[in-house]
């Protein structure tokens, strides 16, 4: 029953996906700030409106909140609550890079005092040369990719159940290397070992490629002068479920724990993060924190 209801919820998003709107929407800033103090772009607000309408239409969402409207809104349904980033990477729309939508779906009517591991499902929409929907369910194995066809139907094209080792890296927040020597050492390792750099500046495409290529690592690390930017509720926890269901791993909050195990106590809670293969996340923890006890016995 839970899978059926969460399938209905993820399905409700599909007819109103943002891809057609992204192609023609304004990328200009508005005079608005969200409650986190971030400037809101017209395209962010359009995507936000579309998603709220879709979740209201589903009739299975009690509360929803987003990076643009972080306080939960009562949508009148029952069964689930959702948190979403309506258009991750909106700042790179004007350069025509791939962007996306991130959605975390929790059972019940709570969006605080929870963890990512309690999610019923997570969804990622990817808007690039192809429009793709990626879904993972708590009680169903794998991470599942659907491709939007010209006739408006979705074709199931791939299941991912294993993320192996491979030299591909997407290093976020490289400015942190100036006063985080451990991060600098890790980046120098990637360069010295001739990893292939694949970094767009958009979290959705940079994490999605790990699932598609079934290898690689994404990092976004803090330092004394560069604070955490990525929000657990709207970005990190949902992507954590997708990556770990695909057979990968994560490390969050500077505490050497999975992104799914960080207690979410407020809507603006932020973290540094690593997503990737088990071996790459082990290497990340060894370089950043000196050891990786969670991954004892894993060879990198």
UniProtKB/TrEMBL annotation:
GO biological process: fructose 1,6-bisphosphate metabolic process; fructose 6-phosphate metabolic process; fructose metabolic process; gluconeogenesis; reductive pentose-phosphate cycle; sucrose biosynthetic process
Any GO molecular function: fructose 1,6-bisphosphate 1-phosphatase activity
Pathway: Carbohydrate biosynthesis; Calvin cycle
Gene Ontology CC annotations of this record: chloroplast
Fructose-1-6-bisphosphatase class 1 C-terminal domain residues: 165-288
Enzyme class, UniProt record, top EC level: hydrolase
Occurrences of domain Fructose-1-6-bisphosphatase class I N-terminal (ranges): 18-158
Record's keyword terms, sorted: Calvin cycle, Carbohydrate metabolism, Chloroplast, Disulfide bond, Hydrolase, Magnesium, Metal-binding, Plastid, Transit peptide
EC numbers on record: 3.1.3.37
TM ranges: none
InterPro entries the UniProt entry points to: FBPase_C_dom (IPR044015), FBPase_class-1 (IPR000146), FBPase_N (IPR033391), Fructose_bisphosphatase_AS (IPR020548), SBPase (IPR023079)
Reactions it catalyzes: D-sedoheptulose 1,7-bisphosphate + H2O = D-sedoheptulose 7-phosphate + phosphate
Localization in the cell: Plastid, Chloroplast
Cofactor(s) the protein requires to work: Mg(2+)
Gene3D superfamilies: 3.40.190.80, Fructose-1,6-Bisphosphatase, subunit A, domain 1
Superkingdom of source: Eukaryota
Subunit structure: Homodimer.
PANTHER family named in the record: FRUCTOSE-1,6-BISPHOSPHATASE-RELATED (PTHR11556), SEDOHEPTULOSE-1,7-BISPHOSPHATASE, CHLOROPLASTIC (PTHR11556:SF35)
Family note: Belongs to the FBPase class 1 family.
Full protein name: Sedoheptulose-1,7-bisphosphatase, chloroplastic
């Amino acid at each position: 029953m839970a899978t059926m209801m969460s399938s209905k919820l993820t399905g409700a998003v599909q007819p109103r996906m943002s891809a057609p709107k992204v192609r023609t929407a304004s990328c200009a800033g508005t005079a608005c700030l969200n409650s986190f103090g971030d400037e809101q772009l017209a395209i962010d607000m359009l995507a936000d409106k579309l998603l709220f309408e879709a979740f209201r239409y589903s009739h299975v969402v009690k509360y929803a909140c987003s990076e643009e409207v972080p306080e939960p809104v009562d949508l009148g349904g029952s069964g689930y609550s959702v948190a979403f980033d309506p258009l991750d990477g909106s700042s790179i729309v004007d350069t025509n890079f791939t962007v996306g939508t991130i959605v975390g779906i929790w059972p019940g009517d709570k969006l605080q005092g929870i963890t990512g591991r309690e999610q019923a499902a997570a969804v990622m929409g990817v808007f690039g040369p192809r429009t793709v929907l990626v879904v993972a369910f708590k009680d169903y194995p794998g991470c599942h990719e659907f491709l939007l066809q010209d006739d408006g139907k979705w074709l199931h094209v791939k299941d991912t159940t294993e993320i192996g080792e491979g030299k591909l890296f997407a290093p976020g927040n490289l400015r942190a290397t100036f006063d985080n020597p451990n991060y600098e050492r890790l980046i120098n390792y990637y360069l010295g070992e001739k990893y292939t750099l694949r970094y767009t500046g958009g979290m959705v495409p940079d994490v999605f490629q790990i699932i598609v290529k079934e290898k690689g690592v994404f990092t976004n690390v803090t330092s004394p002068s560069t604070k955490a930017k990525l929000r657990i509720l709207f970005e990190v926890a949902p992507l954590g479920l997708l990556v770990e269901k695909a057979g990968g791993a994560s490390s969050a909050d500077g505490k050497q724990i999975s992104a799914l195990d960080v207690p979410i106590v407020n809507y603006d809670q932020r973290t540094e993060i690593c997503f990737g293969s088990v071996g790459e996340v082990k290497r990340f923890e060894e370089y950043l924190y000196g050891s990786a006890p969670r991954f004892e016995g894993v060879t990198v």
